[in-house]
Amino acid sequence: KSLYKTDKLEPLGEAREILKFARAQARKQAANLEHPLVCIDVIEEGIVSGPRAGLWKEANAFQSLLFSDTCKSLLHVFFSQRATSKVPGATDLGLMPRKITKVAILGGGLMGSGIATAMILSNYPVLLKEVNEKFLNAGIDRIKANLQSRVRKGKMTEERYEKALSLVTGALGYEKFKEVDLVIEAVIENVKLKQQIFADLEKYCPSHCILATNTSTIDLNLIGEKTKSQDRIVGAHFFSPAHVMPLLEIVRTQHTSAQVVVDLLDVGKRIKKTPIVVGNCTGFAVNRMFFPYTQSALLFVDYG
């Protein structure tokens, strides 16, 4: 009976206006995708020519879309995103992720403040460390700006904004690092500075604490060279802006423990990222793929 009910439908002229608006929205949101428009066409057919005609159109449209390249690609993306959480030598050992209750971030620049934003949006308390008061205030201001942008777009209420912001604590020293479960270092790409930081972290953090670096270029073994904690040193490479971009590279060395990888995969999921586990090599995965792109572009420029 419900198939023939029309009492919830707008008059035809009004319905067509609504569908016209929906088409414009679909084009704006996904300019190169055909199937959202096909869905709207099917709905229109049901309204204009009756429910049976709508169902016939749906069956035919589905059949043709099923064999399109877009369908194959979307299925590929769907399964490959889920395959990222299966990592031989880490996730197949029956390990359970440990509870991460407090995160420290070193550096409140563009990257550090973005990572902090991603963390507090998923209710992780964050300790943000900087070298002086001026840099610390600038880092907290960046976090505020990231959150305010969400409020402006209607993605966040004022109340939620206040709650998120209350999760950030500033620090200029390492005193409070004894209660931290995960540290993410996000300072400039300077080997000596990073080595010094990791030697300090080993001193001040509890023995279970994961020591992560956001480096995109430096060998992790080099970063952890002056420590005895190589089994808990790992890469957590975010992409800028860190609170928006969905990818997180988890970089493991030959020393990184499987438990640390499992823990970071769990954190990655909780902060709504797609975590991929990669090896400790030049450029890791993303920049390694990016190098040949840049090289070929420059080669074409050379060829005029």
Fold topology:
Elements (H helix, E strand, L loop, with lengths): L11 H18 L5 H15 L1 H16 L2 H15 L19 E4 L3 H12 L4 E4 L3 H20 L5 H8 L2 E4 L10 E4 L5 H14 L5 E4 L6 H4 L9 E6 L8 E6 L5 H13 L3 E6 L6 H17 L2
Parallel strand pairs: 1-2, 1-4, 2-3, 4-5, 5-6, 7-8
Antiparallel strand pairs: 6-7
Helix pairs in contact: 1-2, 2-3, 5-6, 6-7
Span between N and C termini? Answer: 69 Å
Under CATH, the topology of the largest domain is which? Rossmann fold
Please, how many domains?
2
Instruction: Indicate the structural class.
Output: alpha/beta
Largest sheet report: 8 strands, mixed
What is the strand arrangement across the widest sheet? 3-2-1-4-5-6-7-8
Q: From the structure provided, what is the oligomeric state, counting identical versus distinct chains?
A: single chain
Q: Percent of residues in beta strands? A: 5-15%
> What CATH architecture of the largest domain would you give?
3-Layer(aba) Sandwich
Task: Please report the first level of CATH classification, the CATH class of the largest domain.
Answer: Alpha Beta
CATH H-level superfamily of the largest domain: NAD(P)-binding Rossmann-like Domain
Number of strands: 8
Helical content, roughly? 40-55%
Q: Mean pLDDT, as a whole number?
A: 95
Globular, elongated, flat, extended or rod-shaped: what is the shape? elongated
**Helix count, per DSSP?**
11
Order of helices and strands: HHHHEHEHHEEHEHEEHEH
Radius of gyration: 25 Å
GO biological process, one term: fatty acid beta-oxidation
Pfam families: 3HCDH_N
Protein name: 3-hydroxyacyl-CoA dehydrogenase NAD binding domain-containing protein
Domain 3-hydroxyacyl-CoA dehydrogenase NAD binding: 102-280
